[in-house]
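Q: Convert this sequence to structure tokens.
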Amino acid sequence: PVSSPDLTKYTDAAKVAPYAQGYVAAMIREGIVGGVTSDQLAPQSNINRASTVTILDRAISTYADKAGSTVTANGGLALVVADDVTLTGQTDKLLVPTDDVNVTVSTSKTTSSITITGDDSTVTVKNSGVNSAAVHGDNSKVILNSSTAGDVTLSGANSKVETTGSAKVDSVTVTEDAKGATVAVGSGTTVKAVDNKAADTTVTGAGTVSKVASDTNVTVETKNTSV
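A:
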């Protein structure tokens, strides 16, 4: 949400519930909604089918639903619901909500965020950058192959982040819901910090981990790591 939303250009802005104003302003800013007219939002009116389709079309820039396909993204949100999809081009946000799929990201520019909500799914980022990655699905993982990442969050049970090649990660956050999570740091890769709140988390591999902080039992197998 926009922290200080300004909807005053719309004559019915007062009808937008206070809790929703920041979200409405964010959707307007991103071009997803624009009001029923230039100065009316009609926030309490029923939405029709055409407007629903318009919002979905504006919100989802790239939709990959064919297994084995290579899809070129052109910014915005990419939604992948098929197995063995390769995503190229440029995407701002990647969402993988489907179970048992493998997605490869090889984009030309840094991706803002990757979110995996499907179970048993894997996203591999090759030779690219990502600001943040969140693994919410159980038994799902993100693989960073010679890629850079800001923060990686594990919140699914038995979720995993794996670094290979020359990957570098600023921080890995393991929430209390990620029981059995694994941070696998491959040889030649670097993770600056791991913040763990889940039981039975393992930090392993031949790569470099500078620091691990934990408020519960954790197994750390990486060398020269400050715990």
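The chain has a mean pLDDT of 96.
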